[in-house]
Design brief:
Elements: E1 4-5, H1 8-17, E2 29-31, E3 41-50, E4 53-61, E5 66-68, E6 76-88, E7 91-107, E8 115-123, E9 129-138, E10 143-152, E11 162-166, E12 169-170, E13 175-176, E14 181-186, E15 193-199, E16 224-229, E17 234-238, E18 244-248, E19 256-261, H2 272-278, H3 285-292, H4 297-309, H5 312-333, H6 343-351, E20 356-360, E21 363-368, E22 377-383, E23 393-395, H7 401-413
Parallel strand pairs: 13-19
Antiparallel strand pairs: 1-8, 2-5, 3-4, 4-8, 6-7, 6-9, 9-10, 11-12, 11-14, 14-17, 15-16, 15-18, 18-19, 20-21, 21-22, 22-23
Length: 423
């Protein structure tokens, strides 16, 4: 039986209401769902905490959960199901372990935004790599979060051999505020020092999907470095005011842990200047140069959205939907660059959520439209190899995308939010 590190109150409540599940009706129901982002939001981080186990930490955002109650005499509740299957990387046909369990989160009449943490342990061994098929289900809403995760136990310097916390809370994204103190825990007492390489470069935004230009290849050239001592398998580090740190624990390669500094609004947008920068994808060159060289970024970006919206109300709706996609891109696609600047972020912002995503160890293919439909188009992203992130993907560019790109951009410029099923 797997050891589950889960708050007992969840199981107590769930045990009390399982026998009554047939009483549950579609009403009354409450949701604090964002209409432009109705998917289940789950953050995950893995820590190879010993030679024979890996802990999986989950953090579930309740923003898009559905809360129900059988009648007005009891609290609203969200019911979540966790299911996983563990395979050996060399034999994905043989199941090593599997488990399914549920928990319930109760809320009062006023449902507040919050993060729901939980975790469970897996039996893993040093020297082997594993594949974890994880499914988190909002039972009330009948929506799933699916993730295929590689557990790396062959490389003792991989990201999963370190756990970062701040203010005693687990950090799921390794993104922090300027001058924030971060604690790093290692799974081995052998390592006594870490080399901290500092990077302060501002990386460019993605080029259009049909561009024949190439962004310069990412090269490992730190702006500065320093060494930090490690005691009792953990240490504290203060984040820089901008850029990121890459921590190396050996001299033979650049493998290690990367910690990023982003502003307090992240994954949202911090100021009017960044709003201008993030809107470059749908601006003409002249519009962009006018906005970025002004002394009043807020006035210029407001004027732009009003010009394509035609009215204050329509402009506000377009602005809200566009920057919601920017925020979601930051959540999903950030690596050493903010998510909205990446290839996947660019495509997500302009085209919206794909109809289907196919993933493998080499990359992802995003499908827009129905299979076998001649108007359906696809974007293929290839996973890159760099020491900073395993979330860095590059689009395979083609002139084929030019027509689709300008069609989608034109939708935005006509005051409409592009959706593949509303063309």
């Amino acid at each position: 039986m797997r050891f589950l590190i889960i708050c007992f109150v969840f199981f107590s409540f769930f045990g009390a209401c399982v026998s009554k599940r047939n009483r549950f009706t579609d009403k009354p129901t409450k949701s604090i769902s964002n209409p432009d982002n109705d998917l289940l939001q789950v953050n995950t981080v893995l820590f190879n905490n010993s030679e024979t186990s890996t802990t999986v930490y989950l953090n579930i955002d309740n923003e898009n959960l559905i809360y129900k109650r059988p009648d007005t005499t009891v609290n609203f509740y969200a019911e979540i199901k966790i299911k996983y299957i563990l395979f050996n990387e060399n034999n994905i046909k043989k199941i090593i372990d599997s488990l399914s369990f549920k928990f319930v989160d109760k809320e009062d009449e006023q449902i507040k935004n919050k993060q729901i943490p939980l975790s469970f342990k897996l039996n893993t061994q040093n020297g082997n790599n594993y594949l974890l098929d994880l499914v988190v289900t909002d039972v009330n809403k009948k929506t799933n979060y699916n993730q295929a995760i590689t557990i790396n136990r062959k490389n003792h310097l991989s990201r999963q051999n370190f756990l970062t916390t701040s203010n005693s809370k687990i950090s799921y994204k390794n993104t922090f505020l300027a001058l924030q103190e971060v604690n790093v825990t290692l799974n081995t007492p052998i390592i006594k020092t870490a080399t901290v390489d500092c990077f302060f470069t501002e990386f460019p935004i993605a080029l259009p999907p049909f561009s024949n230009k190439f962004i310069d290849e990412l090269k490992y050239k730190p702006d500065s470095s320093f060494v930090i001592s490690i005691s009792n398998s953990n240490f504290d580090i203060i984040m820089p005011e901008n850029g990121f740190y890459h921590l190396k624990f050996g001299d033979d390669n650049n493998e290690g842990l990367t910690l990023y500094t982003f502003d307090e609004a992240f994954p949202g947008i911090n100021n009017s200047k960044e709003m201008v920068l993030a809107t470059r994808y749908i601006m003409t060159k002249q519009e962009y140069e006018t906005c970025i060289t002004t002394n009043d970024y807020k006035a210029s970006i407001d004027k732009f959205w009003l010009s394509i919206g035609g009215s204050n109300e329509r402009a506000k709706e377009l602005l809200k939907r566009y920057y919601n996609r920017v925020k979601e891109s930051n959540k999903l696609y950030t690596s050493y660059n903010k998510g909205w600047k990446t290839d996947r972020g660019m495509i997500f912002i302009i085209f919206g959520k794909p109809t289907q995503i196919y993933k493998n160890s080499r990359g992802e293919t995003w499908v827009y439209g129905l299979e076998n439909n001649p108007s359906t188009f696809r974007f293929t992203f290839y996973k890159t190899q760099n020491p900073f992130s395993n979330n860095d993907y590059v689009l395979e560019r083609s002139q084929y995308y030019k027509e689709q790109w300008y069609l989608a951009v034109d939708y935005w410029r006509q005051g409409r939010v592009y959706n593949v099923f509303e063309r």
